[in-house]
Amino acid sequence: MQTELSKKLGVEHAIFGFTPFPAVAAAISRAGGFGVLGAVRYTAPDDLKRDLDWVQKHTDGLPYGLDVVMPAKKVEGVTEADIEAMIPESHREFVRSTLAKHNVPELPEGEASGWRITGWMEQVARSQLDVAFDYPIKLLANALGSPPADVIQRAHEHDILVAALAGSARHARKHADAGIDIVVAQGYEAGGHTGEIASMVLTPEAVEAVDPLPVLAAGGIGSGEQVAAALALGAQGVWTGSIWLTTTEAEMHSRRLTEKLLAATSSDTVRSRALTGKPARQLRTEWTDAWDDPSGPGTLPMPLQGLLVAEAVSRIQKYEVDALLGTPVGQIVGRMNSERSVRQVFDDLTRGFERAIDRINRIAGRA
Amino acid sequence: MQTELSKKLGVEHAIFGFTPFPAVAAAISRAGGFGVLGAVRYTAPDDLKRDLDWVQKHTDGLPYGLDVVMPAKKVEGVTEADIEAMIPESHREFVRSTLAKHNVPELPEGEASGWRITGWMEQVARSQLDVAFDYPIKLLANALGSPPADVIQRAHEHDILVAALAGSARHARKHADAGIDIVVAQGYEAGGHTGEIASMVLTPEAVEAVDPLPVLAAGGIGSGEQVAAALALGAQGVWTGSIWLTTTEAEMHSRRLTEKLLAATSSDTVRSRALTGKPARQLRTEWTDAWDDPSGPGTLPMPLQGLLVAEAVSRIQKYEVDALLGTPVGQIVGRMNSERSVRQVFDDLTRGFERAIDRINRIAGRA
User: Which of A181, A356, B184, B366 has the smallest CB count inside 10 Å?
Assistant: First the structure.
C-alpha cells in the first residue's frame, strides 16, 4: 500500500497510527506502518526522553513520529494559576457534587492528579520539542491548529515533515498557508477533538483544498475496507488512533476501561466538551451526560474546562468508577471487540485492504 | 459498476437516485442508474398516477422504483384534526412570532398549504401503494422503519424488492427480521432523517449485520470517488439524493433555494428536528436556529412538529424568505456548485469511479 507520502517517509504501508503508548508506536512502525507517539501526557521532558529512547531502540531504524498539542495562538505570561482563578466556584461545586453522587473517593494525600492540562500549554510543548529534535523523528503532528511558524521552520531544518489536524476544508487551507506539509482530515466520527463534517465528505474536500499537499484520512478507520475507502477518496494514507487502544501492547490505566471499550457499540460515543472545553468524541458516560445536560452549568471554554476536571478525571480513573469512566475514542469503537496484538490488528488492515481491492475490481469489471 | 443487486435489478450501474421529481427519476434510469421517485408529496392518488404514467413513458422500459413514508407502527383512528389538537398554543405563537419577525406574508385567501404531512400518514401511503402496484416498479423503499408485513408481502407478490432506511446496525437487523430485501444505510452526513453514525462506520456495520442481504450506502455521496469508497466498504450500491436537487431537470419550487444550495458549503447544514420532529439534516437557516435555540420552546415530536410548521414552510417557500428558506440536504451540498443535467452528473459519477479504481490499484501495486 504505497503512496507518494509513504514512499517519501520510507514506510511499507500508508497507515499512520497515533498512540499515547511507546510500545504501541514502536510496534506499528515494526509492523510496516508509521507509529506516532502522542506527547501530551509528558509534563516532564525527562519522561519523554526516556520513552523516545525506548521507541528508538525498538523500531529497528524504521521511521516514527511525534504528536504534540501546541496552540497556534500564543498567550503571553499566563500561568496555570491565572487560569485556575478564572474558573467559577459554581463549576467547582458541580464537579464536587457529581463526584459525590457517585461516591468517588479522594486521591490519597500527596498523590497529584495524573491527568494535567499542562501538556497543552505552549511552553510545555516547546520543552517537548527540545527533546524530540534530538531524535530522528520523521513527522511532527500538531493536534490543535497549525504549529507556530518558528516550530515549522525548526522541523524543516531537521528534515521533519509537519502535519496538522483539520476538520474542514477552510481549516485545511489555513494549515497549508501556514507552511505545513501534511493535512490530517479529522472526520466527525473520529475520536478526540473533531468537527461536524464526516470523513466521506471531508476527505475529498480537504484533498481538493490543499492539492498538491498530501492528506491523511482520520476518523472511522479500523478495517482494511475502511483503509481502501479512505484511499479511494483521495487520501495518501490513513491516520488511525482508536483501534490501538485495545491492543495487548496498550498500557491502559484501567482494566475496566479496556472492557468498556471492547463492549461499546458505535452508538456509545458522544461529541462532548466535557473533557477539554472543545468538542471531542469520547465514550458516553454519566460524566459526559452531566456536562451536556442543559439543566447543568455547562462546560467552560478551553483551557478552563480541562483544568477544572483534571483531578476529577484522575479520581474516576484511579477508582475505576464505572458510570463515569470514559476516554476519547471514535465511532469505530463498535468494531473493537477483541484484544489482539498490534501486529494482528495491522495485518488485518493490510489483508482487508487487499480483499476490498479484489471486490471493487470485480464490481468495476476489472477482475 | 455491477453488483449482485444491480444485476438482479437489471441496471447498468449500482447507483440509486432518490428524488421528488419525475423528470429526474426518469433521467437517472435512462442514464444507467436506478431512479426512485419520492411519493411523500402526493396527497392525491391521481397526481401520483399522472406522474408515474409520465415516468413509465420516459424510462424506455428501464427499471425504476418508488419511495414512500410509511410508519411501521399503526395508530388507529387518529385524524389530522386529532393531531392538530395536541399542539400547544405556545408553539403556535412561536411560529407566528418567528414569521412576523421576518415579515413573512400570509398565503393568499383560499390557497392551501402545499406542504402537508398527510403523505406521512399510513392511509395516504396505502392509497399511494394502491396506485403504484399497477406500475412495473422494481423497488419499494420506506423512509421510516420497515413497512408493515402485509405491504412487504404485497410487494413480493408483485416481484418488487423492498428497501428500508437504517441509521444503525441494530436498526438494520430489525429491518432484516421484518423480511425486507435491501437495507439503505443512512449515514450521519446524509440529507433528511438520519442518525449519528457516519457512513464510514455505518456501512460496514450494516453489511455485517444483515449479511447476505444487500446494503446500499447513503450519505455523503456525490462523486465517483465516494461511490468507490462506499463499494469498498461492502455496499452493493449507493443511494444518492441531494446531488440531484441542483440538476437542470429538478423542478425546485424556488429559484432562490437552488442558489442557496449552489452556494452552501459542507458546514452549512444542520441535523435538526425543526421540520418533522425527528432529526433530519437540512440547510441551516434562521428557521432551524430558532427551533434549536435552547431559549425557545423547542420542537414537538413527530408528527406534531410537521403539522405545526406546514403552513409556515409553505409561506417561507412561496415568498422566498431568504433567512428562513431551507430544504433537507446532506453535507455533500458543499460539492454541488454548478447546475448540470442529470446525465452530466451521472457520467461524472461513473467516470470518477473509474479514476478512483485506477488510483487505488496503483496504490495497491496492481496497476
Answer: B366
